[in-house]
Amino acid sequence: MIDLIINGLSVSVEEGATLLEAARFLGFPIPTLCYMDGLSPYGACRLCVVEIGEGPRAKLVTACTYPAEEGLKVRTASSRVIKARKMILELHLASCPQSKTIQDLAAAHGVRQQRFRQEYEDCILCGLCVRMCEEQMMAKAIGFRGRGQNRSIGTPFDIQSDVCRLCGGCMYICPACQLRCTYTEPEKAVCGGCENLSPPCLEKEQFDDMMCFMDPCVACEIAKD
Amino acid sequence: MKEENFLSIIGKHQAHQGGLISILEDIQTRYSYLPEQALRIVAQETGFSLVDIYGVATFYKLFSLKPRGKHLISVCSGTACHVRASSGVIEEFEQRLQVNAGETTPDGEITLVTVNCLGACALGPIVVVDGYYFSNVNRQMVGKIIDNARAGIDRVDVDTDERIFPLEVSCPHCNRSLIDKNFYIDGYPSIRVTVSFGRRHGWVRLSCLYGSYSVEQEYEVPIDTVVNFFCPHCHAELSGVLDCTSCGAPMVSAFIRGGGVLHICSRRGCKAHMLDLHGASL
C-alpha cells in the first residue's frame, strides 16, 4: 500500500494505482474525456489535471497517467487546477463545439465563453477509438496518421481495413463524433443548453420533441402533462 | 517492383529489433516512395500491424507515399531561413517548376518539398538538392540550382574535375595489365575483368578514371548483387582482404602500376572504393 495525501486527507491506495484511480476510489471527482476503465491511460485530453507537490514546486500533471507515489500531496480541485481545466475545456470547445460530451463538461465547469478561433472538427484526437480497437476489439484497424496539424485518425490508405469487423466500438466510445449537441448555433460555440435553468425548448414550441439530451428533459416532461 | 525485392530489404533488417524505420528507409531509397504493396508486405513479414507502419510512414517527412521525382529539392522554411526570406526562394522555385511545394513536376524529374529545419541555420536560406547543400540561397540562384538538379548534381565532369585521374591496374596474381586499349570508357582505355553472378558469366569494363562510376557490361547485373571478379588472363579471383565499410560486401583488389592497391566494392550499385598507396591493407 502507498500512503499519500489527497486534498489534505491521508489515504492509502494499492501499489500501481494512478492518481485518477485513487481519487475516484475515494470519491474525489475528476473529469475525464479520454479515460475509460479497461483501456490504457493516454493523457491526451488533459482534463484530469491535478496539482502535485507544494509551494513553488507544485505542478500540474495528468492524473490518469501519474502513478501514486509515497507521501505525494495531491490537490484535485485547487484554483490553479480549476483554472487550467476551464482553459482546456475552452480549447476543446474551440475545436469541437458539436460534441455533447464537451458541451456538458463545459457547462458543468461554468465555461461561459470561448475566445479562440472557432473550428468545427469532429475529432479531438483523444485516441479512445484507437485504444478501443486495439485493446478491447483486438483489431488494430484504425490508428493515428500524420503529425502536427495534419494528425488524424483513420485506416491506412483511407480504405476499409482488412481487420475491421465493423463492431462499431470506435463510434460507441467517441466523445466527439457521436453524441451531437443540436442546440449549438454555428456562431456561438458555448451552448450551455442542458445546464440552463430554463430549458431552451420551452421557449420554442416547435421544438417539443427536440433531442436536447437532458435527462429527464424538463420541457418534454412538462409538455406531457 | 517485385515482391522479392521487398523481401530482401526486409530480410536485411529483420535481425535488428525495431528495424522498421530502416526497412522503410531502404524501400524509400530504392523506389523513391513507399508503395502500398510494400507496406502490406512489410506488415506481413515483420508482424507490425499495418496501422502502425502507416503511422510511421506518414509521421516522418522523409517518407513519401506518393512517387517522387528523380531529383529532390528541399527548401528550408525553418525560422532562421524564413527570416532570411526563404519564402521568396520557395515562391521562385514554385514559379519556375510550375508546381506547388510537395509536388512533383509532370515529367517526373523534380520533386519540390519544404522542410522545417536542416540544422545549418547560420547558412540560411538553405536548399538541399539530392543531398548537396546550397547555402545563402537567393532568388537569383534558383534557376541555376534547378539546372544543376536536372543535370544530376553528383555528375562529375571528367575533363575539368581534378579529383579524377586515370589508373593503370594489373592482376595481383599474374601481374598482367587489366587495361583494355581497344575499349574506351570516358575517353580512356577501360579496365577489363570477368565477373560471375548467379549462373551468369561475362565481361565487365570499368572506367579507369578514379572517381568515375561508368561501366559497360555483357550482362546487366541487377542492383545489390554481389559479384565475383576474375582476372581475364589467369582466371584467378580478384578477391581482397577488406570488407566494404558501407555495405559489408567483400572488396575486390587490384595492383596499381607504380605502386599501391585499388579496392572497389563487389556489390553492384555500391560506390565504395579506396586507394591504398602505402600497402597498409595488405
How does this structure look, described?
The complex is a heterodimer of chains A (about 220) and B (about 280). Chain A has seven helices and seven strands. Chain A has about 220 residues and is an alpha+beta fold. In chain A, the strands form two sheets. A five-stranded mixed β-sheet of chain A has the order 2-1-5-3-4, with helices on both faces. In chain A, a hairpin with a 2-residue loop joins strand 1 (about 1-5) and strand 2 (about 10-15). The longest helix of chain A is centred in the middle third of the chain and has 17 residues, at about 80-95. Chain B is α+β, with helices and mostly antiparallel strands. Chain B folds into three domains: about 5-60, no CATH class; about 70-150, Glutaredoxin (3-Layer(aba) Sandwich), CATH 3.40.30; about 165-275, no CATH class. Chain B is built from seven helices and 16 strands. The interface of A and B includes residues 140 and 145 of A.
The count of DSSP E runs of length 2 or more, i.e. the number of strands of chain A, is 7
Sketch the major β-sheet of chain B.
5 strands, antiparallel
- Number of domain units of chain A: 3
Strand content of the residues of chain B, in percent?
25-35%
Question: What is the tally of beta strands of chain B?
Answer: 16
Strand/helix succession of chain A = EEHEEEHHHEEHHH
